[in-house]
Amino acid sequence: MPRLAHVSQSDRIRPIASRQNPIVQEFRELARKRKSDETRMLIDGWHLLLEARQAGVAIERVAFTRDLLETAHTALVANELAESGVEVFEASSTVMEALSPVRTPTGVVAIGRRDVAALDMAFKGVPQLVLAALDIQDPGNLGAMIRAADAAGATGVVACGASADPFGWKALRGSMGSAFRLPIARADLETTMRVARAARVRLVAAVPRFGQPLFETDLRTPTAFLVGTEGAGLPLGLLQQMDETVTIPMRPPVESLNVAVAAALLFYEAMRQRSRI
């Protein structure tokens, strides 16, 4: 297939010929960061790039494979980005393997800059429906939780304790763009609880057993779900500070669910109840 002339000849789209290029090293270093207050993030994949643009995320740099730049749609987007001041690069498949953090690169990877959400912004939506994720260390699970919460009408997310970076590349891929739409804050749990109570938001902790059955719990009022890790769960002292605990009914011998699945059930039950108001 012949290359599109306006792409290959554009001065705005620069080739990267070596894996040792400083631009490649910048992408790789950003992918290795586990947690940081830095507002820059690695966006891997065509879908995420489009979601980021639609959400108004500032894109600094983006690299496409040569094959992708041979398609009319990608060429159009690449030139639009370049004309708006974004640094756009053309990479061979070998260089893309170094740029992208995934084993099978999608052919597009970018660096974006996000705004840091203040904690109170996560409790601004009315009626509040907030995810407070405590010590969710698997970024894929955290991203999936954010996606499910967004799909069910959540108004905010708070990553607490030792939770993974919700804007790390793995969590972003798990959220499939939801992280760009929701106000997401990082805070310690004590501060999160204080802000929730000041906003008159009920704190509801998910527990594997002995809580109020989920389908018998009124979730129509402003609510923040506290969800912890599957292994250790939430400590008793913390549960005693909650307004309520809820348990998802399960048939034996199943004792627990994947944390992202559990979060999805919690938020969809809240959405079901609120849609009947």
Quick gist of this model?
The protein is of the alpha/beta class. Helix content is 36%, strand content 21%. The chain contains 12 helices and 12 strands.
Structural overview:
The structure is a single chain. The strands form 2 sheets. This protein has a 7-stranded parallel β-sheet with strand order 8-7-6-11-9-12-10, with helices on both faces. Strands 1-4-3-5-2 form a 5-stranded mixed β-sheet, sandwiched between helices. 36% of the residues lie in helices and 21% in strands. The longest helix is centred in the C-terminal third of the chain and has 16 residues, at 259-274. It contains 12 helices and 12 strands. The model is unreliable at 1-9 (pLDDT under 50). The radius of gyration is 21 Å and the shape is elongated. Strand 6 (129-134), helix 7 (139-151) and strand 7 (156-160) form a beta-alpha-beta unit. With 277 residues, the chain is an alpha/beta fold. The termini are far apart.
